[in-house]
What we know:
The complex is a heterodimer of chains A (255) and B (470).
Chain A: H1 7-19, H2 35-39, H3 43-62, E1 69-71, H4 74-87, H5 93-103, E2 105-107, H6 108-115, E3 128-131, H7 135-140, H8 145-151, E4 158-159, H9 175-178, H10 180-197, E5 201-204, H11 207-220, E6 225-228, H12 229-233
Parallel strand pairs in A: 1-2, 3-4, 3-5, 5-6
Helix pairs in contact in A: 3-5, 4-5, 6-8, 10-11
Chain B: H1 9-17, H2 20-42, H3 46-62, H4 64-77, E1 81-85, H5 88-101, E2 106-109, H6 113-117, H7 120-126, E3 130-133, H8 136-144, H9 160-171, H10 179-196, E4 199-202, E5 206-208, E6 213-218, H11 222-228, E7 232-238, E8 242-243, H12 246-260, E9 268-272, E10 286-292, H13 296-301, H14 315-319, H15 321-326, H16 338-348, H17 367-371, H18 378-391, H19 397-409, H20 413-421, H21 423-430, H22 434-442, H23 453-462
Parallel strand pairs in B: 1-10, 2-3, 2-4, 4-7, 5-8, 7-10
Antiparallel strand pairs in B: 5-6, 6-9
Amino acid sequence: MVDTLYPGVGLAAASLLRRSGADVVFPDGQTCCGQPALNAGYRNDARRVARHFVDIFHPPLDDGTIDAIVAPSGSCVAMVKHQYPRLFEDDDPYRRRAIEIGDVTYELTQYLADYLGFAPGDARYAGKITYHPCCHLLRELGIDAQPRQLLAKIQDAELVELPDAEECCGFGGVFAIKNAEISTAMGRRKAKNLAASGADVVALCDVSCMTHLNGIRARDGYSCRAVHVAELLAGSPESEPADQEPADEEYPDAG
Amino acid sequence: MPVDVAAPYAVRVRQALADDALRAALDRATEHLRDRRAQAVAAVDFHRLRDQTRAARCYAIEHLPDLLEQLEGNLIANGCQVHWARDAAEAVGTVLDIAGVHSVSDVVKSKSMVTEEIGLNDALQRSGIDVVETDLGEFIVQLAGEPPSHIITPVIHKRIEDISALFGEKLGTPPTTDPAELCAAARRELRSEFLVADMGISGCNFAIAETGTICVVTNEGNGRMVTSLPPVYVAIVGIEKVVRRVEDAVLLWQAASRSATGQDVSVYFSLCSGPRRRGDADGPDEMHVILLDNGRSRILERRYGDAALCIRCGACINVCPVYREIGGHTYGRTPYSGPIGAVITPLLEYDPRAARELPFASSLCGACRDVCPAKIDLPRLLLDLRSDLVERRASPIGERAAVRAYASFVRRPALYRVLASAARRFARFARALPPLRTWARTRELPRFAPQRFADLWRERRDDGTGSDEE
């Protein structure tokens, strides 16, 4: 999703890692971790995709080219760390490699805060920011303090609390399609809380939840926009990105 | 319009989401229960309580056959009659037989999800037996002609003003929003029922193997009346309810109370070990215990043993953001709703496809796992169930083809590059496909970026600017 929909998030993440002293490589051939398939109940297909992921990332890890794998998405990291070991049987050679990969896979804000000691740069945002802890980040990875610490370093920004912050936004992968109406109802509840927070933007660490919330925002017309934490930290949240604005001439068939 | 539990899933969802009164009731009640629970678990070493709870339940499930035999032996030694029932039909048949022997015409019941599971009330009524639910919540849903919508708070889907209107219509009471007044009205109705009843039927929270004791947890005392007042008492016990010893039952009582309603312990904890003995002041003349399987051993055979650890506290339901939108009736005819219901309902079925929608009715947010006193990893069980269903060909062909296509192309980087780079051109076409069309009904779709990250990255690397500067 970052690759095709939100390259700005990827560039911001890479920029933050570099500024914190990390050497960033982007292995060619990487695509997706397989979470969509597993989430929809296709564990055999997910296993095939996971093998590809392991094939791409294990060699550079093995030969010391890379020390860590960092992703700007809590749910992808949770997939690699927690679901990969379950996908491979004990006697599958991929299992050991998958576990080795999982051991050094980190979510972006976690890696920045805990391993690189990310220094407050010149990130500036003149407005109110609230934070939504995405479910897999919060509950599968236990990451909450790191993104909040990082956001607190942004100059000129006022951090405001989000009521019922820990309640799911309603995305949930295949749930957003198979149970679109319930998913939207949950998103609208989140939107109400976002409005109550008074924030101009809500920062989060998963582009899928961001897509869901901004999709509802564009349709229902509430003001608080979802942005990835990396974009705020890199000082590059596109002022008002073209994505997910109500359909224009480019897609006349929308709606 | 209330949710029709017999309607197809999609219809039930639509009915629930359109019912503002339902959602107002759910909001109010689940928030209250969640707050109460949070306070009650903060008052103790909840980590320890959870570890102990899980250990006690794991012991019971791992030693299930032995404990059940021990339970049976001790119940018989206490003077009870023990019946084994493989399925709902056998259990219902046994109750009807017992009722026949004693020419039973009036039954009082304590709240019991297992009797909902086996459809006991309908069967009794069809045989001309009058059945009265004596738990206040169950009394209300019975009055309304509805099934319960929550395993602990069966009438959670109604606001107090709805209940007042119902009482006015059925019992002729004046309108009131005072719970005590409504409770008093129910009490007046119920008192006479207790006095004429010739059979009491309850479920069971814990069955203690070492003593042969049936434990019933209530807050109103109706359970104790049901188990002690009528001459014949029948307890229907799911086989997974067995625990090893008294200490385990007391532990689980506390874990369930804190998790369910935020109480230190429930108001009543009725322990019934047998019929009235010579010299006892009260108690039934006869006590029957029906040990019911009805799919429970299948849960273990299907390697979902964790689901059998559940102590039915309902904490997972109260924190579930999906349940909060749709309520219990949207889960269908099953009395088990919320995350645990989405797991055990299909598992209790001979063919899990009979409830194929339920494992997908979750955003897998994990709030349920965090509150479960038995530490059941509900999201993992839901994921496993999804895959089991897909492997039983329960998913649409188009979906299978789409996932297969996805898995193929993301494993072929060259193909992925071509398709991802061209994605913008296909966007209009893709919007017409079912998944995106469904998405776009309520939400705008994101746009593909003019350039992929991989390309931007390569350009920056190649022209030496790196990506340090915007």
